[in-house]
Amino acid sequence: MRLRSTNDRLKIEHSIVAGVRRMLGRLLEENAAIRSVVPGRIAQVRDAKGKVTVRITVPTANGFKAIALSDGARQELFISTDLSREDLEVALQRAAERANE
């Protein structure tokens, strides 16, 4: 399956939760050190109300896996980067805050 992409850094296989899409746009605008983001599965959850929140779960071979919560759904994010976990957490928080404005 061929991936569609936005600016060659946001890979789109299927739909992206609306609030998460805005947050990822901000993240990629502000951080050239992020090579790509591949959004994964979406699952409905009860505790994903309000503003977009993102937490990093595990390191991967070329970056990190994160979970984004927004609009009653959670979505996996696979982030390819050389940033440290701490730097990526700060970048994700900043992008989420700007997307929630």
Overview of this protein structure:
It is a single chain. This protein is α+β, with helices and mostly antiparallel strands and about 100 residues long. The chain has one domain. Helices cover about 30% and strands about 40% of the residues. The protein has 2 helices and 6 strands, in the order ββαββββα. It has helices spanning about 20-30, 85-100, and strands at about 5, 10, 35-45, 55-60, 65-70, 75-80. Strands 3-6-5-4 form a 4-stranded antiparallel sheet, with helices on one face. The protein has a two-stranded antiparallel ribbon with strand order 1-2. Strand 5 and strand 6 (about 75-80) form a beta hairpin. Helix 1 (about 20-30) packs across helix 2 (about 85-100). The longest helix has 15 residues, at about 85-100. The termini are far apart. About 30% of the residues are buried.
List the helices and strands and how they pair.
Blueprint: E1 4-6, E2 10-12, H1 18-30, E3 34-44, E4 53-60, E5 63-70, E6 73-81, H2 85-99
Antiparallel strand pairs: 1-2, 3-6, 4-5, 5-6
Helix pairs in contact: 1-2
Short characterization:
With 101 residues, this protein is α+β, with helices and mostly antiparallel strands.
